[in-house]
Amino acid sequence: MTNAFNNRIGVFDSGVGGLTVLRQIYRQLPQESILYFGDTKRLPYGTKSAQEILQFVREILYWMQQEGVKMVIMACNTSSALALEEVRTEFNFPILGLIHPGAKAAIKQGKRIGVISTVATASSNAYRNAINELEPDTKVWQIGCPEFVPLIEQNKIYEPYTKEVAQKYLEPLLRNRIDTLVYGCTHYPHLEGVFKEILPSYVKLVDPAYAVVRAIAKELEINGLRNRENALATRFCVSGNPEEFAQASKGWLGFTPNVEQIHLQPHFEVINNSGEIRDSQDDVYAESLIA
User: Is the separation of the CB atoms in 39 and 75 below 8 Å?
Assistant: First the structure.
């Protein structure tokens, strides 16, 4: 497949969390056209197994490839932690994740770094490994926060219970005197107001969304993929209820998006990097995944 500079960039997450990345793309790369996918039918990702996440990611990437994207951004830390390295060898367009850009941004801010994330991301040690690879002497504490994504997706950000949950998750990090807090899930910037009420003013907040969009800009330049025409309107797609996503996202986007429901092709598994795929249920071979 030949990527055209005016094709869309694919951006995906389990739900509205990836909108924090989308907003940074709007600010930093306003000329780029975007295909946004929220896998709302299967959220939250943070409680799923690594094998499930890998299968979800492959299905999304296969669909995005069929839609002709020129690049894909995993606007989901769980997917970045558990699937990025494997799927990069299976598709012939650039795929960027959040972990390494986030780690690079974090080490510029402090030496005692707390990372809040989904349970799956915390268990993977992806942020600790990435940070310590760059700065071995930096202290890193990771906390899995399973209640945050459901609360954000249900638009319960400003309810008192949400602040209680945040205090519970942040307390061990504060005991360890962190000087930097990394949003290890793209949903979490939606809770920034809550965090600022709890954290001391000296704790710096790191949003990997900002850093990953800077990486996107470099990747577009290197590959000659920067758009030279006017951006198309963002296309929003979900696997679950389109109306629920539209209502949940309008406060963050500043408008109510038109949202399509997409049914992903299930069961397909990549079996080699030449692009051959098979149906994992009945072993029937399918047409080439990579054109």
Answer: no
Selected from 3.40.50.1860, 3.30.70.660, 3.40.630.30, 3.40.50.12780, the CATH number assigned to the domain covering 9-98+211-279 reads 3.40.50.1860
Active site residues: 76, 185
What is the Cα–Cα distance from 25 to 19, expressed in whole angstroms?
10
Known binding-site positions: 13-14, 45-46, 77-78, 186-187
3-state DSSP call for residue 205? strand
Dump pLDDT digits (tens) for 211-260.
Answer: 999 999 999 999 999 998 999 999 999 999 999 999 999 988 999 999 99
99-208: CATH, from 3.40.5.60, 3.40.50.1860, 3.40.50.620, 2.40.280.10:
3.40.50.1860
101: alpha, beta or left? (left if phi > 0; alpha if psi -120 to 50): alpha
As annotated, the binding site for substrate includes 13-14, 45-46, 77-78, 186-187
* Non-local CB neighbours of 34 within 8 Å, separated by 6+ positions: 8, 9, 10, 11, 22, 25, 231, 234, 235
Nearest of 290, 242, 225 to residue 33 by alpha carbon? 225
- Please check the confidence at residue 1 and state whether its pLDDT lies above 50: no
User: Is-contact 195 23, C-beta < 8 A?
Assistant: no
10 Å Cβ neighbour count for 64? 23
**What would the pLDDT profile of 78-124 be if each residue is shown by its tens digit?**
999 999 999 999 999 999 999 999 999 999 999 999 999 999 999 99
Contact call for residues 246 and 261 (beta carbons, < 8 A): no
Q: pTM (2 decimals)?
A: 0.86
